[in-house]
From TrEMBL:
Protein name stated in the entry: Tudor domain-containing protein
Residues covered by the Tudor domain: 138-197
InterPro entries documented for this protein: Tudor (IPR002999), Tudor_domain_containing (IPR050621)
Source organism of the structure: Anisakis simplex
Compositional bias of kind Polar residues: 1-13
Entries under SMART domains matching the protein: TUDOR
Top-level taxon of origin: Eukaryota
Basic and acidic residues composition bias: residue spans: 19-31
Residues in coiled coil: none
Residues covered by region (Disordered): 1-33
Pfam families (alphabetical): TUDOR
Gene3D superfamilies for this protein: 2.30.30.140
């Protein structure tokens, strides 16, 4: 693990600068809040992050409710809270899953790697056993589904952000952080209890004070993607 690589970089959300997405905004925004609970809300999508004793607490609908958050972590509509096990200036090992640009990344907690592997194996088993249901034409915002990612044509857990047109939705891939448009024919209704009750694994991080790189985008992505690094709250 290379601690120096991200020493001083700021996990988004932990300095109250977290990129967020909700049903009223389709690009990255800022937020301060998230509930430490399983959220059930119809017709809505949101992504929130909190820092213990720093961010505002919120209610079960993702709205600020006063006071300070009692735990650090990530919440997405209709999934349990993802606890981020850090204290003070401690480093936490993360794996870089998505490079958005020189400042913005999506990472996964390194210790949760086996869990992510188990989820992917379960999705593969469902696909091979004809345990997936396709044919549904309407999905609710915030609904957890399986969607096919254009990069490798594999199925992953996703949350519906919004409907683009009659046969296409914009989705957020819950465990990796990608967002893209997906055709209805590449979306499956999800009824598997394990996949519906496992917290989201995608955590956005934003570099503090970094705005450009001398590397080309291709070089930059190649260098950082899939690396395990240490980050700390700062």
């Amino acid at each position: 693990m290379n601690n120096a690589a991200f020493n001083g970089y700021t996990p988004s959300g932990f300095n109250r600068r977290l990129p967020t997405v909700d049903e009223n905004r389709r690009d990255d925004a800022r937020t301060k809040t998230a509930p430490h609970s399983l959220v059930r809300r119809a017709n809505a999508f949101f992504y929130r992050a909190i820092l213990k004793d720093v961010s505002s607490a919120v209610d079960g609908l993702g709205n600020a409710s006063g006071g300070r958050a009692s735990s650090s972590g990530i919440v997405i509509s209709n999934l349990p809270f993802l606890h981020i096990p850090v204290k003070g200036d401690d480093f936490i090992a993360v794996r870089i899953a998505v490079v958005r640009n020189v400042q913005l990344y999506c990472v996964q907690i390194e210790d949760n790697g086996p869990l992510i592997i188990d989820m992917m194996a379960r999705i593969t088993k469902l696909r091979r056993s004809d345990g997936l249901r396709r044919g549904k034409m309407h999905f609710e915002q915030g609904e957890v589904v399986l969607a096919r990612f254009s990069g490798d044509r594999k199925l992953y857990r996703a949350s519906v952000i919004t409907r683009v047109d009659s046969n296409e939705y914009r989705v957020f891939f819950l465990d990796y952080g990608n967002m893209e448009k997906v055709l209805v024919e590449d979306m499956y209704e999800l009824n598997d209890e394990y996949l519906l009750t496992t917290p989201p694994q995608a955590v956005f991080v934003e570099l503090d004070g970094v705005s450009r790189s001398e590397l080309s985008r291709e070089q930059f992505v190649t260098y950082f993607i899939n690396r395990t690094v240490g980050i700390r709250l700062c």
